[in-house]
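R.M. (postdoc): so does anyone remember the format we settled on? I'll just put the structure tokens first.
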């Protein structure tokens, strides 16, 4: 069955109308059951690849601050769950429900789709892990008396900022590499997902034309 997005007045007679949810369900099942995995590899495995990249960058960021603050085994699992596991889950959910959905429903332009994919990837792979790691690591260090600030009141914010800047300096190069890596990877995956979907649409159209031609030939034979 070939699926095409169109306005109500453009829909031909005899066409089956589907809601967005029905289209998503049909296409998702079709993609998952597609016999040749390599033909649709980006649609099948692209989002898990992006999610795995989030795990890598989040783990590196967490390990860096734990090591610099000398936390040892303090709060290892407590920090690992929100800093590493949760962002990777969010990335998978957002990429599937926003990026992949936009591709299948043909709602946005290719540049818009790639851009939103990059923002999701940078948010879940860099921004969220960095913020949650800094907050969580400093809380654990303070709770375990591994870190204390001399200032009081508003001045403690300035002291914290200076300490964080000095502590984070060795991470800057790796952060830059992660930002570039996430941006390029998300762009590449979204690009191939769009290519895979276009390939799938052409295959569906070809199959529909073959079925129409076969039906026409059967009618001709029966009329004879």
């Amino acid at each position: 069955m070939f699926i095409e997005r169109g306005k109500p007045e453009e829909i031909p007679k005899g066409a089956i109308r589907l809601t967005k949810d029905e289209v998503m369900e049909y296409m998702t099942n079709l993609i998952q059951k597609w016999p040749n995995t390599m033909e649709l590899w980006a649609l099948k495995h692209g989002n898990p690849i992006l999610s795995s990249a989030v795990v890598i960058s989040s783990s590196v960021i967490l390990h860096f601050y734990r090591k610099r603050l000398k936390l040892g085994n303090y709060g290892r699992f407590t920090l690992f769950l929100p800093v590493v596991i949760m962002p990777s889950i969010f990335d998978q959910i957002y990429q599937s429900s926003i990026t992949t959905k936009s591709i299948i429903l043909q709602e946005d332009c290719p540049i818009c789709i790639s851009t939103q994919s990059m923002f999701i990837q940078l948010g879940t792979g860099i921004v969220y892990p960095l913020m949650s790691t800094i907050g969580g690591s400093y809380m654990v260090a303070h709770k375990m008396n591994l870190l204390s600030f001399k200032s009081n009141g508003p001045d403690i914010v300035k002291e914290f900022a200076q300490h964080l800047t000095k502590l984070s300096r060795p991470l800057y190069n790796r952060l830059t590499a992660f930002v570039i890596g996430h941006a390029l990877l998300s762009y590449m995956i979204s690009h191939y997902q769009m290519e895979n979907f276009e390939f799938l649409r052409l295959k569906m159209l070809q199959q529909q034309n073959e079925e129409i031609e076969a039906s026409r030939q059967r009618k001709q034979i029966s009329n004879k």
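R.M.: ...and that's the designed sequence above, right after the tokens. Also worth knowing: Residues 172-223 form the longest helix (52 residues). The two ends are 29 Å apart (CA to CA).
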